[in-house]
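Re: that backbone. Tokens:
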């Protein structure tokens, strides 16, 4: 029998599963038998695992590119008329391919972690390999036995069922891969934490090793969430970017706990405190990434009865989640006594107290999101009734907490470790408080009286001023000591304190995102109108005139396009051209919004139904400051990259030669 390329891919992925099992056995035996050779074999198995999964994923992409509809997954998610870009991205357009991408990412990051930390952490390495291989094994077993993207289809159809039209967008090329990179990235800190718990070495070693991994995963997850928000904004046509949808919530939960982890790890680095808290957070963050994958890719969000249709798949994912939870939290409980810190908080007004408060509030928000997301599923299980928890619940509980966090964001970097006096605290925040008061006065003067709005604007003013002041103090000190221009002083300070300034820049980006959310969420204007050619509508100072309605055709869809001319104060500005498309193979209609981003906000047009007499229903939005969200993300990314470039103590140690006499065969000294 001659195997097709795709079948060879399936064989490669199956071999990768076997290699994961081999790596686990070899890693554990290397400890029991004190055998470096077995550890080297386990490491090499992980490298081979990467090569095999890469080959398997490549064969599936190849099947999409050449329209090989003998592969069931390709036939269900592609079409001969599908543009080339989406034939590549269709790999993660549905359940099976997404999980293969998840497994491939884990193989890549595992290999990278082993290569980077092999010299530094030889004693932890067996357990790190065993943990990563066990996670990989779990996903590969699921892919091969319950969610196989390599299955054949007989008879072979002439054409495929097409990719979901909502996914036929460049957003598919960015949002899922980046989001998954964030999810999978948290597996590395999890593996290091598990290794430290098993070894009983719960000190600083694992924290310093994974700081940059955690920041990398957090930055990727942040980017994935922002990409998803932007994708929803311009593709779904409802005028917003966040709707507290369960799929969105699934990614927000690990982001919130991961943010708490990122801050809390600093306390362990500087004060040797929060050891139990940190391992709890790292386990929780990884579990939430698994929960997010489970919720989105199990079909349970559509209905819990999806499990009745495919009970094996649902039970497996729940079982995998449960085993990981038992192992992770079980180890934390087992080592609880060892994790106790000798030092405690010395002052209420200290950086560690601010970080602890920040972490607790982030966990409260995560718990609130989890309750709102899972409660409808629990109700459906026990009563059969379908419920949905909407934005009012989330906004009522979460928005006040997030406003407190906005103020707290400024305190962490500004307050010293161990503590300071209340009097000094008052002096330090005199300027941010003054700016916040001015912001309140300005709001009241402009007629903005809603308490939540006024507090949000004051919080943004306070946080941004405090962050800029912190940056300015460092730059001014450098300029006083070394002279030169402000720009050169800023460059020098940023180069020497990349981690601190990176963090401040990230905070500044978060404030910009908050400002964008405040502006677009609280001051949005919209209108739903019926128009004929030549009719005009006025919104937020703009005049939109419907100039034309025309048919459009594409190999993959047919549709209609409206053309609006936009003017302000009588001067023509630009045109907006929203579309409505019909995809015949899927028998599905989508809207393609038209938007123009300006400094003060976005003008956003959506094409609705068209009546036989030529009247068109259109929805027009003015979303103030929404662009600040995307700008804020770019600032966050710049800060994260700057912070990532500062080398940790372990990476500096890695560049030094090993101590003579400490080498093991194949395993350098720790």
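Recovered sequence:
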């Amino acid at each position: 029998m001659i195997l097709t390329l795709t079948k060879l891919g399936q064989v490669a992925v199956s071999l990768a599963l076997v290699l994961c099992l081999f790596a686990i056995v070899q890693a554990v035996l290397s400890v029991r038998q004190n055998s470096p050779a077995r550890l080297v074999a386990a490491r090499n198995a992980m490298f081979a695992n990467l090569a095999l999964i890469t080959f398997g994923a490549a064969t599936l992409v190849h099947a999409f590119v050449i329209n090989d509809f003998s592969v069931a997954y390709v036939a269900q998610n592609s079409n001969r008329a599908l543009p080339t870009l989406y034939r590549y991205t269709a790999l993660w357009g549905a359940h099976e391919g997404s999980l293969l991408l998840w497994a491939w990412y884990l193989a890549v990051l595992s290999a990278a972690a082993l290569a980077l930390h092999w010299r530094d952490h030889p004693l932890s390495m067996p357990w790190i390999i065993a943990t990563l291989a066990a996670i990989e094994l779990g996903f590969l077993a699921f892919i091969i036995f319950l969610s196989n993207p390599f299955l054949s289809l007989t008879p072979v159809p002439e054409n495929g069922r097409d990719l979901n039209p909502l996914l036929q967008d460049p957003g598919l090329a960015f949002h899922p891969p980046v989001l998954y990179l964030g999810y999978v990235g948290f597996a590395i800190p999890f593996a290091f934490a598990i290794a430290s718990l098993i070894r009983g070495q719960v000190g600083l070693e694992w924290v310093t090793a994974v700081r940059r991994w955690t920041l990398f995963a957090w930055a990727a997850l942040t980017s994935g969430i922002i990409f998803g928000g932007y994708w929803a904004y311009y593709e779904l046509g409802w005028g917003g970017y966040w709707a507290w949808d369960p799929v969105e919530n699934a990614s927000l939960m690990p982001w919130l706990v991961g943010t708490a982890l990122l801050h809390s790890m600093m306390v362990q680095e500087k004060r040797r405190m929060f050891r139990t808290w940190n391992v709890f957070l790292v386990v929780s963050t990884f579990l939430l990434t698994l929960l997010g994958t489970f919720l989105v890719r199990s079909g349970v969000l559509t209905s819990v009865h999806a499990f009745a249709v495919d009970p094996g798949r649902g039970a497996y994912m729940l079982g995998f989640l449960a085993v990981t939870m038992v192992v992770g939290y079980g180890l934390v409980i087992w080592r609880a006594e060892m994790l106790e810190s000798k030092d405690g908080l010395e002052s209420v007004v200290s950086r560690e107290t601010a970080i602890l408060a920040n972490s607790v509030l982030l966990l409260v928000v995560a718990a609130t999101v989890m309750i709102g997301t899972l409660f409808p599923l629990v109700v459906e299980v026990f009563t059969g009734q379908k419920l949905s928890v909407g934005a009012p619940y989330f906004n009522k509980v979460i928005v006040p907490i997030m406003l407190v966090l906005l103020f707290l964001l400024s305190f962490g970097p500004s307050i010293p470790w161990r503590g300071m006096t209340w009097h000094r605290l008052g002096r330090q925040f005199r300027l941010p408080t003054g700016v916040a008061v001015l912001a309140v006065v300005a709001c009241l003067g402009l007629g903005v009286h809603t308490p939540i709005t006024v507090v949000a604007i004051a919080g943004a003013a306070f946080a941004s001023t405090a962050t800029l002041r912190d940056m300015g103090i460092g730059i001014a000190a450098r300029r006083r000591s070394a002279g030169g221009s402000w720009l050169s002083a800023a460059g020098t300070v940023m180069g020497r304190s990349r981690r601190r300034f990176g963090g401040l820049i990230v905070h500044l980006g978060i404030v910009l995102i908050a400002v964008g959310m405040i502006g677009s969420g609280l001051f949005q204007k919209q209108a739903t109108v019926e128009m004929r050619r030549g009719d005009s509508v006025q919104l937020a100072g703009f005049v939109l005139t419907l100039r034309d309605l025309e048919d459009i055709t594409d190999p993959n869809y047919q549709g209609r396009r409206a053309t609006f001319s936009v003017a302000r104060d009588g001067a023509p500005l630009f045109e907006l051209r929203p579309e409505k498309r019909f995809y015949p193979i899927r028998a599905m209609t989508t809207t393609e919004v038209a938007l123009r981003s300006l400094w003060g906000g976005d003008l956003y047009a959506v094409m609705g139904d068209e009546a036989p007499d030529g009247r068109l229903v259109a929805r027009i939005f003015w979303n103030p400051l929404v662009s600040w969200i995307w700008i804020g993300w770019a600032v966050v990314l710049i800060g994260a990259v700057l912070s990532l470039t500062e080398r940790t103590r372990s990476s500096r140690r890695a560049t030094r030669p090993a101590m003579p006499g400490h080498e093991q065969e194949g395993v350098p000294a720790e």
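The longest helix spans residues 351-383. Residues 304-308, 654-670 have pLDDT under 50 and may be disordered.
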